[in-house]
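Subject: Re: docking follow-up (magnesium ion)

Dear J.,

Thanks for your patience while I sorted out the input files. As discussed at Tuesday's group meeting, I've set up the holo structure prediction with magnesium ion included as the bound ligand rather than trying to dock it afterwards. The sequence and the ligand SMILES I used are pasted below, so you can double-check that they match what you have on your end before we go further.
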Amino acid sequence: MAELNQVIGALNHAADIIENNKQHLTELDGAIGDGDHGINMSRGFSFVKKTLDEGSFETAADLFKKSGMALVAHVGGASGPLFGTAFLRASMTLKDKTEITIEDYINLLKASIEGIKMRGKSDAGEKTMLDALIPAYEAGEQAVQQGKNTVEVLQAVKEGSEKGLKETEKLVAKKGRASYVGERSIGHQDPGAASVALILGAIADYFSEA
Amino acid sequence: MVGIVLVSHSRKIVEGIRELAAQMAKDAPVALAGGTEDDRLGTDMNKISNAVHDVYSEDGVLVFFDMGSAYMNAQMALDFLEEDGSKVEIVDAAFVEGAITAIVDSGLNKSMDEIKADIASMKLGKMP
Ligand SMILES: [Mg+2]
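The structure tokens for the complex came back this morning:
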């Protein structure tokens, strides 16, 4: 699926998409949370870009680890430890690989889910980033089982995340600042889930267009 | 003396708590991690690591936090700590009351265990 320079390309593209959607993410968070999600994510991913730009990476694990640390250190909200942990867990699955297969991608999504559950003491249905990530992983896993090609699997992951994001409108927030408004969070999309969908969408688009 | 670290989304909150506690305990080692690195509301893992580092000793460090991401970032900071992590503990307590009790206790040279016993009744179930 991807050599290291393509992984860097895909993550840079994801960072650009986050930057372009900064205002949208902030508005989603403003409706039910503290309104800092767009700024936090754009700031964190600008440091990921800087890391990718200035660093040299021996392995895919190294690349994900350093990107994860950039997120942990610079996001400044719950998204920092959560997205950071996702990247660090992804890194652990990649070990000394210098190329990522579509199966590796699905595996790292799974590891990210476990990491986020552990760090956030959270689970599906609590109106969090997991509600985009879990359906994304499941759709991708299914597409792999069905023998779909790389671009099709990436597309399935993207669509899974978007469907999951849409579903978060119906959920009552149980975690984070949005849990303070409880029932009033119904009808709004979760900003963390929106970020997940943007990132997974950007990765799919990057490889579809390549 | 036991080091006390205060983690809050707001720099003003931790500065206020330290100011309040200083009326009773001027010498206790207290370090603040309030706000983000670019001084917005939020918490920052590196600030927390640095704060722990500043007040670390063999006597231990207690980390108090306000809410939400403060706990997660404190955990991350402990995961990546250079110092002996077994001597650093995040505690579940009402932030203002717990921190002030601990700061005064530390100033009286109480041990980690003694301080923890003194704040045991102030738990809020903040650490799921
Ligand atoms: Mg927020």
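A couple of observations from a first look. The two ends of chain B are 29 Å apart (CA to CA). Residues 60 and 86 of chain B are 8 Å apart (CA to CA).

Let me know if you'd like me to rerun anything.

Best regards,
T.
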